[in-house]
Design goal:
Strand order of the largest sheet: 2-1-6-5-4-3
Shape: globular
Structural class: alpha+beta
Number of helices: 3
Distance between the termini: 30 Å
Number of strands: 6
Length: about 120
């Protein structure tokens, strides 16, 4: 478990991509922008925290298994690439490939750009 107060940029990025949102909250810029490609950007710390909470609630009855989880860090940029399998309480299985790009400015997370696609297994 990563200590939220001392997490590195890469640990913060990996936490978000891995649905460990509490680790990331202390590192969010007030004016953070999260673009889920194909949707309207989510702007501001409160809106991003609300999305974290909604995602946590949505995944509460879902089993998540990461088939692959890789991160690449350079300076103030982190890229996390994953493939995850989700099985809901009805047994419906979905596989999602994602690539999240994180930009840190002045020690806080300023921007996220996420590419997600459902893939055939």
């Amino acid at each position: 478990m990563v200590d939220p107060m001392t997490a590195t940029n890469e640990e913060v990025a990996r936490a978000i991509s891995g649905h460990d949102f509490p680790t990331a909250v202390p590192h969010l810029a007030e004016d953070i922008v999260w673009t889920l490609v194909g949707e309207a950007p989510i702007v501001g710390r409160e809106a991003v925290v609300a999305l974290f909470e909604a995602t946590t609630a949505e995944l509460a009855a879902t089993t998540s298994t990461f088939r692959s989880f890789q991160s690449y860090a350079a300076s103030d940029t982190v890229i996390v690439e994953t493939e995850a399998e989700y099985v809901d309480e009805a047994g419906t299985r979905t596989v999602v490939a994602s690539c999240d790009l994180y930009r840190f400015v002045g020690g806080v997370l300023d921007e996220i750009r996420s590419y997600n696609i459902e893939v055939a297994d």
